[in-house]
Amino acid sequence: MKGYSCDFDVEGCASARLEGVDASYKDLSEVCGRIRRKDAAWARVFLERVAEGEIPVLYKRHNKKLGHRRELGGRKGRYPWKCAAIVLKVLNSAIANGMAKGLGEGYVVFGAAANKKFSYPRMAPKGRTARSYYELARIEIVLKPTEAQVPKGVEVKKAKTDAKPADTKKAAEKKPEQKSAEASAGAGTKKEESKTPTHSAAPHVHKHEQEREREEAHAHQAKFEYVHSRAKRTEIK
């Protein structure tokens, strides 16, 4: 959107900005950097505590000759209570704009930035040649809803599944024509298997029968000779 430092969907996001702020743009940029990409509810509580002077704010860029804070684990920080109160007002305005659009109540800080807007030269009083500049800042906050909420009166179509239970049953049940065709094909394959000669099984069975007949013949002859040798008449069963 024109006038913002980040590109976003105007209809699907909520935004708010404030220009001509009488505060340090360096402190404002550090405060905005701490709430960027964070939940809006958490950012609101954080800014309220900073505005009351309870907790410090970590400074990552504008920290030259800045003191270390025990609450930040020895890192550099400050208590910008004035800037935190101003950013909190802009954040509340962005949340109100989102609720007016009907985007819901949960938001994430998609973009938060502060820059220098105007600077006016100021001369020292009593004819002194010293010169200073009166600088104004600009704040912008963009919120994105956490969950896409459907407007009233609109029905949401559920996604179709790949296979339903009814479809699987139909696929399992086959037509009688298909069953008969499959049965005939199976019978054909069985006949072909029966026609194929079994070279390994038949010779083995035939050889075993011949050996058995030979053994029976030898046993019969040995018994016959044994009986006649003793001159006894017996019937061979």
Would you spell out the secondary-structure blueprint of this structure?
Layout: E1 14-21, H1 25-35, H2 40-51, E2 57-58, E3 77-78, H3 81-101, E4 107-123, E5 131-145, H4 165-172, H5 176-195, H6 201-229
Helix pairs in contact: 2-3
Could you characterize the architecture of this molecule?
It is a single chain. This protein has 237 residues and is an alpha+beta fold. Among the domains are: 14-124 and 131-145, Ribosomal Protein L22, Chain A (Alpha-Beta Complex), CATH 3.90.470.10; 202-237, no CATH class. It has six helices and five strands. The chain has helices spanning 25-35, 40-51, 81-101, 165-172, 176-195, 201-229, and strands spanning 14-21, 57-58, 77-78, 107-123, 131-145. The strands form two sheets. The chain has a three-stranded antiparallel β-sheet, covered by helices on one side. A two-stranded antiparallel ribbon has the order 2-3. Strand 4 and strand 5 form a beta hairpin. Helix 2 (40-51) packs antiparallel against helix 3. It starts with 13 loop residues before the first strand and ends in an 8-residue tail after the last helix. The model is unreliable at 150-154 and 198-203 (pLDDT under 50).
